[in-house]
Amino acid sequence: MIEVENLSKFYGPRLAVNNLNFTVSQGEVVGFLGPNGAGKTTTMNILCCILPASRGTARICGFDIFEQSMEIRKTIGYLPENPPVYLDMTVDDYLQFAAAVRGVAGKKIAAAADRALEKCGLKDVRRRLIGKLSKGYQQRVGLAQALIHDPKILILDEPTTGLDPLQIMEIRKLIQDLASSHTIILSSHILPEVSQICQRVVIINEGEIAAIDSLEGLTASLRKTERLRLRVRSANDDVLQSLKALEGTLSVQQEDDSAFIVESPLGSPFQDKVARLALDREWGIVELSSASMTLEDIFLKLTTEEKELAE
Ligand SMILES: Nc1ncnc2c1ncn2[C@@H]1O[C@H](COP(=O)(O)OP(=O)(O)O)[C@@H](O)[C@H]1O
Ligand SMILES: [Mg+2]
What we know:
This protein is an alpha/beta fold and 311 residues long. The chain is built from 12 helices and 14 strands. The strands form 3 sheets. Strands 6-7-8-3-9-10 form a 6-stranded mixed beta sheet, sandwiched between helices. Strands 2-1-4-5 form a 4-stranded antiparallel beta sheet, with helices on one face. Residues 306-311 have low confidence and may be disordered. Bound molecules: adenosine-5'-diphosphate and magnesium ion.
């Protein structure tokens, strides 16, 4: 549905996006994950035909971004980082205006606005001024604007930035609902957001793709061993030695006074063994948990040490 080929963008001499290649299939929800300045917005603007690429190209539903930008605009709904809403218009007026701008036929404008209001949970506030709504509701209006011409694809640039935690949950829920009927690319620099909503992530760093994979794939590819954390009430020399002597242990590190990290080969269930040992010796288990690489660790690793990974 979306095919990106060797896409690069220069701002003057500055290379902001360097040779991106990826595809998005119909119905997929893909997350662009990367720190600020990584090139997420630039890439999205190119896909939406707002910015021309310097090199390479992309096809959206088979249409080329250079040759058929008008067709592409019809298939994409875009929510930019700062929603393009007019604060002194009512929600209703604004959505009807957005529909007209998007070329929805006069007779169908009211129905299009109604549908967008319904999808975004805005019916109760349709006659309110946008400027008087909370940021969360303003963001919903931004989403409704992106949906107004019933596009197949939604491109959402940092859709939860600047919202409070409750609003963030509501917008994520809304995006999850939309995912059943749209192909979605959304960008974020917040990892839990991407892991909650997206099936696949494109990790972008300094204008380049650091990794593309499912979340499970990313975790698996960087996880070479299982790591368990055992925290006990009465740590003594015996704990360290006994854990090391346990069959299957690869290594044991003492994390602090009472916690130990036990490493074992991938796929070997080790919790039971460690638990049994701790119970037998009456160390007093305070915590026994997985200390494997979290997605947070992986993201940091990919965006700070990608050279190491490439080896
Ligand atoms: N209009 C512009 N002119 C010059 N440089 C820009 C412009 N827009 C973005 N950049 C630079 O390009 C890089 C990528 O920016 P951007 O795509 O906004 O990243 P992100 O959305 O991931 O934070 C950044 O270094 C940014 O400073
Ligand atoms: Mg951005």
